[in-house]
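Weekly puzzle thread! Below is a chain. First person to post its structure in token form gets bragging rights.
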Amino acid sequence: MSVVVNRVLDTQSQLGEGVLWDAARKVVWFVDIKRHLLWHFDPATGSNSASKAPEQIGWAIPSDGGKLLCGLKTGLFLFSPDTQEFEFLRGVPGEPATNRLNDACSDPWGRVWFGSMDDGEGDASGRFYVFDRGEIRAAGPTGITITNGPTVNAQGDRIYFTDTSSQKIMVANLSVSGVGEARLFVDTGALFPEAYPDGPVVDAEGYVWTGLYLGGRVVRFSPDGDLVDSIEIPARDVTKMAFGGVDLKTAYVTSATKNMEPADMETYPLAGGLYTFDAPVAGFAQAQVKLG
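Winning reply:
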């Protein structure tokens, strides 16, 4: 697919991730995990700022209380956009001290699905959880080195889990009562042997988009797991995409530079930024987190 991709913000992110459209505030939130930064970007005015988190921050999702629920290295925090303060909410039981939280999404019932991973990206100590009105339960695949996603479709009956290191995206049935057994959705390694699936998102038609780390692109898969679109991004290590804007047809994409050498930066001088393009299909509004 041929589209025009623009870098709208030069953040020089080491590990840009967790991009999300805040429909209530009409701004984009995303993080730079390794620099402990939570960014906001207002596309209407171009204004932007970065708030310093107390430790590595993987994601931030607006809640029904006006604050953002955030996943940091040691657990869940609440962030106030008004005061710029982070407040510890609770840890994740049983998580090793060498792990951190990495990626997340909300579902139509206001639950948050998130993953943990080995901060050194070497041990298969990561797994997935659900935060449900103050309670945290283990849910989804285990024994993963780098978890990404999850992401849930608009109907809330499908959830996708990414096992980045093994180059696989899995899918499971989802309902208000829980999650089913995960099964293979697509083996991206068979299509892009040198790249790794990173953060996924589902569009309004039920198709799954994912950034490709070391792949320089975002790709789109049908609900049956067939590759249908590929869009090049001016960054080697593409991490995550979100749908935003009033019509939810503006794609926002994050990227990383932490594993790039000077020669790589010469090849990808726009790496580490926030990018946009006009998506061929709309996304859907993400539900706010229900805290209690």
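Puzzle host: Confirmed. Bonus trivia for everyone else. The domain at 6-278 is CATH 2.120.10.30 (Neuraminidase).
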